[in-house]
Amino acid sequence: MPGFSDLVAAVKPAVVSVRVRAAAGAPAVVSEDDDNPFEGTPFEKYFKNFRGPNDGGAQGGRARHIIQGQGSGFFISPDGYIVTNNHVVANAVKVEVLTDSGATLEAKVVGTDAKSDLALIKVEACSALPFVKLADAPPNIGEWVVAMGNPFGLGGTVTAGIVSAQGRDIGSGSVDDYIQIDAPVNRGNSAVDPPSISGVR
Fold first, then answer.
1. C-alpha angle 193/72/171, rounded to 5°?
2. pLDDT one-digit tens code per residue, 71-82
3. Does residue 88 share a domain with residue 37?
C-alpha cells in the first residue's frame, strides 16, 4: 500500500477550488425605512453604503441578492469534467475553478443531483488536465481513506481515516448505498479518495 505522501502527490494536481456567485433565493422586499445601524460610531465609514433588509436605496422595488461561495472538486477526465457538490453550485450564476497549478478557469454546470448532493461541471482547457481515475469497485471496510480538498482557494488539505461501513441507507432516494468513512472532512472540502483504488492519470 502506498504511503499517504505518495497518494497526495498523485491526486493533488486533480483537486480544485470551486468559486461560485449564486442567486440567494427569492428577491427581498425593500423600502427606504432602514438607516445605517453604525451611524455615529467609528464603523460608520465602513458601512456608509449599508442597506438594511428593508432598504433598496433610491431605486426601491425589489433587490436580487447575490452570494459568493466556495467548495472543492476534482477532475474526472482530461478534457475538464469536474465532480463537486450540488450545494456548492446550486443557483450559480457564475462558476470559476482554481486549479492546483494556480490557473483560474471559467466553468459551466453540466448537471446536478440534489438528492445525492453531487454536481458535474466542466472547464475548457488547451491541454490535457490531470484527473482522478474512479475505482471499479468500492473499498473494503477497514481500508484507509484520505479526504482531500482545496477549501477557499488556500491550497490543498489532507486528512486520513478508514472506511467504517458500506451500504448505508440515509433515506435520500433511489440511490441509497453510501460508503461511510471516519476521515475528518475540513470545511470547504469535497473530494474523498481511498488510497488503494484511486490515482491520477
1. 70
2. 889 999 999 999
3. no
